[in-house]
């Protein structure tokens, strides 16, 4: 994949939004996000047909503006939403299975420590998502922050795969994440909770 797509990677589900998620996505796209992940998950999130309807609407917006659309976790939504790819974690469907099913889609995998790195088939993925870099209140089951040191460690071990940092990243600390060796930053609340989405995304 083109590693520049990770530069400003926006993740969102309706549970993250006070305002209409469609409006938030449109504003974020106008401001310059480079990729979008549909993550309808956790308390307050939609299910079934409502989830599907929102996914289709957000997908359509991304298609209009040529922004890659990634599905979080849910393999069955990849074809239905004509997604460009899928992001999975260590406890989700296996990357081996995914790569067989989707030879040409973008596959992102979360890797947050040395053990996970050792047991992950990184040759099959397009990028690594790693975090939480800083403390995050957004993910209900977030691990303890791994810090910038973990990104440096991945690079010091010679990992050349594109890396995107996640967790507690905002316009004031994004630069540190890039300087540590990440190709980009993925954010939820920095954008969904911003009163000035355009300025926030520009600063990121
Ligand atoms: C870009 C990116 N990085 C990490 C994650 C977290 O994935 P996961 O560990 O599977 O946790 P959930 O998001 O499924 O709760 C991500 N979604 N995106
Ligand atoms: C979805 C997610 N995954 C994480 C991980 O560490 O894998 S942290 C996280 C939440 C990111 O939200 P915010 O930008 O609001 O902190
Ligand atoms: Mg997951």
Can you put this structure into words, describing what you see?
With 204 residues, the chain is α/β, with parallel strands linked by helices. It has a single domain, classed as TIM Barrel, CATH 3.20.20. The protein contains nine helices and eight strands. It has helices spanning 21-31, 48-65, 75-80, 95-101, 114-119, 147-156, 174-179, 189-192, 197-203; strands at 8-12, 35-38, 69-72, 85-88, 106-110, 127-130, 163-166, 184-187. The chain has an eight-stranded parallel β-barrel with strand order 1-2-3-4-5-6-7-8. Helix 7 links the parallel strand 7 and strand 8 (184-187). The longest helix has 18 residues, at 48-65. It is globular, with a radius of gyration of 16 Å. The mean pLDDT is 97. The chain binds the ligand Cc1ncc(COP(=O)(O)OP(=O)(O)O)c(N)n1, the ligand Cc1nc(C(=O)O)sc1CCOP(=O)(O)O and magnesium ion.
Biggest sheet character: 8 strands, parallel, barrel
Helix content: 25-40%
CATH overall fold name: TIM Barrel
CATH superfamily: Aldolase class I
User: Spans with pLDDT under 50 lasting ≥5 residues?
Assistant: none
Mind telling me which CATH architecture this is?
Answer: Alpha-Beta Barrel
CATH class: Alpha Beta
Nearest-angstrom radius of gyration? 16 Å
Q: List each distinct ligand once.
A: the ligand Cc1ncc(COP(=O)(O)OP(=O)(O)O)c(N)n1, the ligand Cc1nc(C(=O)O)sc1CCOP(=O)(O)O, magnesium ion
**Structural class, judged by helices and strands?**
alpha/beta
């Amino acid at each position: 994949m083109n590693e520049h797509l990770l530069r400003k990677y926006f993740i969102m589900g309706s549970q993250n939004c006070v305002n209409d998620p469609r409006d938030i996505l449109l504003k974020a796209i106008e401001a310059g996000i480079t990729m979008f992940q549909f993550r309808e998950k956790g308390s307050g999130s939609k299910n079934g047909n409502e989830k599907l309807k929102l996914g289709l609407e957000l997908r359509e917006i991304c298609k209009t503006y040529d922004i890659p659309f990634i599905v979080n976790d849910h393999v069955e939504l990849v074809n239905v939403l004509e997604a460009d790819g899928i992001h999975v974690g260590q406890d989700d469907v296996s990357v081996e299975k995914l790569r067989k099913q989707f030879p040409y889609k973008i596959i992102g995998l979360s890797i947050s420590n040395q053990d996970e790195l050792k047991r992950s088939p990184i040759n099959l993925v397009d990028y690594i998502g790693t975090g939480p870099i800083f403390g995050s209140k957004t993910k209900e089951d977030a691990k303890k922050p791994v810090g910038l040191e973990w990104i440096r460690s991945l690079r010091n071990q010679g990992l050349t795969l594109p890396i995107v940092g996640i967790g507690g990243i905002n316009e004031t600390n994004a630069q540190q994440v890039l300087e540590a060796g990440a190709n980009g930053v993925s954010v939820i609340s920095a954008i969904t909770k911003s009163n000035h989405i355009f300025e926030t995304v520009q600063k990121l």
